[in-house]
């Protein structure tokens, strides 16, 4: 690092990189030194899309070449999910801090190995859960703690998007595709905002495609924590777009729309229903990704403990795997449909 400025390399040039790279380039504590792709022309095109903000950023052919550079302190890995573990471990072995896109890995064992490697090397490994850095979630938790809905009884959390076009990497099993690791990630982490540490999967179901190699296209999971709070999560690739969570308590209900995809220029509105009255609480716009990058930079500089981020990443990876395992169990018992089936 040079005078506290973190020199960042980017692995991958897909749609996620194009969406977020401008925020990296504009952040005052970061300097994007290189962008890597398997095709240098693609990397150059991405750098060019930054305009003046891309000045001084090199286009690199090959991810390994970027990791070998001496002007990279940390890397942002925005490759397909199935490649996250491999390249995160390579980056850690090269002595780089890692910010990896969600989900951090396809399996819990991979996530645990990544976390252990980073801890042993004294490096930061952060999964991109930028939505949690939007202030609306802390405000909602305060409202709940102050009794806005009475005693919380159930959390509902969901995210879904319309069908993906043919060739979309989220439909590729080898690349770690599927709704559970994509939209399901948000639905589950939305529930984890309110559940205690002792979460169990009561039941789950995944809806797949027609062919054996098709990925899961949607699903649902019922969770329960140690205090008995239930959470119903839904997710998928076959729906109209929605991103939300709600808390239903003994005295009211609180709903947050666009909970995981809040644009930086959107003033969030939370709906509180209580005692027959509806109140809409509005807050100023915030940029959760900028806040997330600020926190990541502080952790890299040793100014912030990154342990809670690592713990939450592992907790989420374990829960994603538990949902998949629950859904793979034999079909549940079905109640008889007619009197003749009972006898």
Explain the overall architecture:
The chain is α/β, with parallel strands linked by helices and 343 residues long. It folds into 2 domains: 125 residues, NAD(P)-binding Rossmann-like Domain (Rossmann fold, 3-Layer(aba) Sandwich), CATH 3.40.50; 164 residues, 2-Layer Sandwich (Dihydrodipicolinate Reductase, domain 2), CATH 3.30.360. 32% of the residues lie in helices and 26% in strands. The protein has 10 helices and 14 strands. The strands form 2 sheets. Strands 8-9-10-7-11-12-13-14 form an 8-stranded mixed beta sheet, with helices on one face. A 6-stranded parallel beta sheet has the order 3-2-1-4-5-6, with helices on both faces. Helix 4 packs parallel to helix 5. The longest helix has 21 residues. The N and C termini lie far apart (75 Å).
Itemize the secondary structure elements and their pairings.
Elements: E1 6-11, H1 15-26, E2 30-37, H2 40-48, E3 58-61, H3 63-67, E4 74-77, H4 84-93, E5 97-100, H5 108-121, E6 125-127, H6 135-145, E7 152-160, H7 183-192, E8 200-208, E9 216-224, E10 230-236, E11 242-249, E12 252-257, E13 269-274, E14 277-282, H8 288-300, H9 307-327, H10 339-342
Parallel strand pairs: 1-2, 1-4, 2-3, 4-5, 5-6, 7-10
Antiparallel strand pairs: 7-11, 8-9, 9-10, 11-12, 12-13, 13-14
Family: Belongs to the Gfo/Idh/MocA family.
Domain GFO/IDH/MocA-like oxidoreductase: 139-254
InterPro entries: Gfo/Idh/MocA-like_OxRdtase_N, Gfo/Idh/MocA_domain, GFO_IDH_MocA-like_dom, NAD(P)-bd_dom_sf
